[in-house]
Structure prediction request, 908 residues.
Amino acid sequence: MKLNQLNFRVKLSPIFVAMAAANLTYSLPSFSQEIDNDVPVVEKEENTDDAPDIEVLERITVSATKRDTDLMNTPVAISAFTEEQLNKIGITNVKDLNNVVPNMSIMTDRESSAPIITMRGVRSTNTTEWGDPAVGVHYDGIYSPRPQGALSLIFDVERVEALRGPQGTLFGRNSTVGSLNIISAKPNLNEVEGKIELEAGRWNQQVIKGVLNVPISDSFALRGSFFKETRDSNLNGYYDPNQWDQRYLGLDTSQLTPISEGITPADRDTDNRTYFNDTLYEPIKADPADFYNNSDQYAFRISGLYSPSIDFSWQLTFERYVDQGAGTAASRDCEKIKDRPSDVNGGSCTDLWGTEDNHTVYVNVPGKVDLTLDSYRSSIHYDITDDIQFSYLAGFQSQERSGQVDLDQGMYFYDQILKWIDTDYDSWSHELQFKSTGESDLQWIVGYFNLKEDNSMNGQYHGAMGGVSWWLQPSRTVESEAFFAQGTYAFTDKLFLTLGARYTEDQKEDKGGRNLGCFSNECYTDVAWGEVWDYIDWSIPLDEQIENTSAVRANLNALPVDYYDSPVEGAEVDSENDVKQSWSKTTWRVGLDYQATADTLFYSYIANGFKGGGIGDILIKQSDGTRFDTSYDGEEVVTYEIGAKTTLLDGKMNLRANYFFSDYKNQQFSTWTIYDTITEMQEDPRTGEMIEMTQDFGTFLTRNASNSKISGLELEMDLVPWKGGFIGGYLTFLDTEITSDYWKAWGSEPSQVFANPDDVEIPGTLDTSQPWFRNLKGNQLAYSPEVSFTLNISHTFELSNGGRIIPFVNIHWEDDSYTSIDNTDKWDIPAEALNEGIDLDIYSDKREAWAMINANLKYETADSTWYIEGGIYNLTDEDVNWWQGYSGSTPVAGKARRNWNIRVGYNF
Prediction:
């Protein structure tokens, strides 16, 4: 495709684009300010005449090119946010940045507690100790390699920068589509200053934040800040005594209330929560303070700055983040559930749980997160001469995590739990830089980067009535080093050429890693575990099935909760993961920029990016004993981008526009994959006859699945339309497409969806005996709406006492999109291949177009010392699925809910 081919499904005319650039408003305003300045939108030009002061947009400094430059003169698509702006819409961590940056969305993986950042349609869903993100995250310019490292709270920051497009030359590995840089506020050598803020909100939310800056001498200052939040769950949570595994609840059944007389399990055979129980009990209301979707987290940061002269500075920072919440649970999607076919998992939400409330959740495993993230950062800057500066950035990050999550939430026949017994991720990074600082026509930077990781993990999956899997990975290491250089040469005072390159070597190794499993009676003789399915004769009445299985359940529930935390005797080794792989890549950047006037910049570049490959478990196929290597190669992208930035109306309007085209090769996708199937003859314990039994073996795999092409147009504007007013925002157009063959299995209960897979031929499948396969070539990428916009409006009302009232409204809308690459509404499946009554719409991964409104109102005193502020998130309580999926065949989602807060603060 040529650079000038704009292949959007939404047709754009030149007139429309011009009108959009001139009249619409589009990203959260990018403001730079001190933390005590609560009117960041504008600055005033002094006017010696009798006319009133003229308000103009403030100039913003960013560090997107590893040096401080003006936002409007930086040839990169970048959005920047101050703490004030982040507070207005309730942003406290990276996860909350969802939809505030053009073409960026963020969701959370509830199993690993890690944010998954999607930018321009590209993301990484592998949040394990092997997975690498597609968007690099940096704190004070120092790389954070693990996805969970992005969980640190955003507080006491100077700004947050979001760079779009490949940043591999300067920011290095795993920034193929962009990077985030959270820049904390630096110690101030000039004065004592501080801030205290209290906040309360819905669901008993309580927040306290504070900052204290103290100069110790003319050359040394200390700065400390902290943030603590507690909040009850936003779910209507219950602990369910009717699910199979009751060990984690510690309930005394004699103290429970039986369900109304006359109702037997056989009368409720559509309710999988009550299956295989001889007595049913009323669920127990959970304490919302420690139930799923609550918040119990805190962080603090201590920084010291030593600067004896203007030529030298050294900043040391220690930061700790602790999360002791209950983790995340999914909400049901009752609209889809009511249309499911009637089977053991069938029925509406009312039939199954007695309510149509999506936010009512039943669990038998309390959620638990115990995460501590310690970060040490050091930044040294020394001006060797008037024209050359040396910088050394070093960081150490240690993450310790344990926890547990109820995977099925009573919505699936299997009772499932995932536990992290112990994880410990350590990383060390070093970066050396030499760069020009003078007025030469050639501005350059050269550097060296080194990263080491040593990660260990002990995890467990427990499927009641199904078995247990263990992951024992004592040492998984990553080593990466790179050399980079970039220079910009001024041919004239208007024309600039940029050339950059980076050479990277990555190595990953697993030492002694083992995966073990136990799915047979030999592992569970003490509890008759594996026999549970053998006792079931599906042709007999349910009451008889319950009688046959009650003893097995009683044996299980007599065990302690940590019984399966370590592999039991007889567990089989499923994989021996001693493996080592290495990759190398040269990334480059060529840019040509034209500074037409002091207020107008045109820029263009061609750049490539590289996300490293990975090694995974070495699986052993039970069918033939062969080893199955799950390693995968790196993905590559080449991006072409042109853009313009201009300041108009005497400094009252900033416009930014850019068009990009990206060509991805070997794109990495992570999905559940069946890798082996065994069939064997077993004795039926009920009849004594030999019967054929088939078992599939699957795992979560990352593969180089396909190539993709992505193009988009991003328009941003900041405007002072009248005195005291501000309008800003963004408008984006995005076109994504998988352009190579990628075969994938239907992911949601194929045995329920499809009728006779051995007899029906489905067009385009890999195997006519498996009609749930489809080629995804031509599909859209996940979280890639074709059109989206954000509009921000505020106005400052000056009061007679000098105080100010500032209302703020944020509106976001986006077009239809998909939450996976399956695009299930495009699957062409003949009706005769489906089970009777199947409506494929209930399995759709499509997210309909949606809009959301956030509002904020603030009062501050004349000297900005005191302020009080209130806000509402999701004002209209829009039903939006941030993510969606299935627990078995039950549709679930992570949903937005209306929230409100009020805060009061004091600056000194």
